[in-house]
Write a structure and sequence with these properties.
Length: 317
């Protein structure tokens, strides 16, 4: 049987009766080191390439999952949106579409169907201000004064602003059996739904006096006084809404992404300068996140309801 052995320091094996010397192959050290270095360089490049590819994948996923910042200017023709919503859902009793929402405020359109009633209800936290966009609203409001139950009933058309503080009950009715009622609803903080209550509910006495106004009468008074610009704070939404009247004057508004301004054109037409001139038309809702300048067209005074949402930092205060 052949087996390994050693003869004078050289390895050999027996093949039959004759030993065969097995010589080890040797490679010079510089060649081995150079080969190892080349392999190490290749491995390093592979690792770097994999890391770069992984980093690119992670950055791509981050971009895909990060929401895009809102545009500097958003313009919604609320009346056109109302018509589109009614066309998409004919016969619906209630339709809602949101145009602005944050942790501290919201603005949405509520379309009430033909002959629809939103029964008496309260909001425990939000302040609410509603602008009639189209149709005729029959509104009943209930609140308390020195422990006494007070109430107000009114009929309001497009452009009217009707506001209800927390716990002030309000019922909205659309008596028209042929068309819907469009309402643009502003709330501070954001809308949290309706809590329906009977007229004798004691919580209604915690409510305070409501507010209602129509801007066209104020526009006529502006013209008589020869005033071109008037901005009036309104006792609604914790003082965060004002009325702006323009008769040939120019109104400058400051707005940023962190402090947006929401404006509804209740009457008239004009021009808004926001990077470029854009038409300002009755029934439009503007969400501004940059400075703008607004002026009325000759012979068409403008009435705006301007809302300054609370900053996000005070959400829930």
């Amino acid at each position: 049987m052949a087996g390994p052995s050693n003869w004078k320091g050289l390895p050999f094996v027996f093949q039959g009766a004759e030993p065969v010397i097995v010589r080890a192959m040797t490679v010079s050290s510089p060649e081995v080191v150079a080969g190892l270095r080349r392999r190490l360089w290749v491995y390093r490049m592979l690792v770097v390439g994999l890391c770069v590819a992984l980093l690119g994948l992670l950055l791509g996923l981050r971009r895909a999952l990060t929401p895009l910042p809102p545009p500097d200017v958003e313009v919604v023709d609320v009346r056109e949106r109302m018509a589109a919503l009614e066309k998409a859902r004919p016969g619906a009793s209630d339709i809602s579409e949101t145009y602005f929402a944050s942790d501290t405020a919201s603005v949405h359109q509520h379309v009430m169907g033909r002959g629809q009633t939103c029964p008496l209800h309260i909001h425990r936290a939000p302040y609410e201000a509603t602008i009639i966009v189209a149709g005729e609203a029959h509104v009943w409001q209930v609140w308390g004064e020195e422990g006494r139950r007070m109430e107000r009933r009114g009929v309001h058309g497009p452009g009217w602003l009707v506001a209800s503080p927390p716990f002030t009950g309000h019922e909205w009715r659309n008596p028209n059996e042929e068309r819907g009622l469009g309402n643009l609803v502003f709330t501070v903080p954001g809308f949290d739904g309706n809590l329906y209550v009977p007229a004798e509910d004691a919580r209604l006495l915690r409510g305070t006096a409501p507010f209602a106004q129509e801007p066209r009468e104020a526009l006529a008074g502006l013209r008589k006084r020869g005033v071109t610009l008037e901005e009036t704070p309104l006792p609604v939404l914790q003082g965060r809404m004002s009325r702006v009247l323009l008769e040939g004057g120019e109104w400058a508004v400051k707005a940023t992404p962190d402090a947006p301004v929401v404006a509804y054109v209740a009457a008239g037409r004009g021009i808004a300068e926001v990077a470029e001139a854009r038409p300002l038309l009755e029934g439009q809702l503007w969400v501004l996140r940059r400075d703008a300048r607004v002026r009325s067209e000759e012979g068409s005074p403008v009435a705006l309801y301007v809302f300054h949402p609370p900053p996000e930092a005070v959400a829930g205060r």
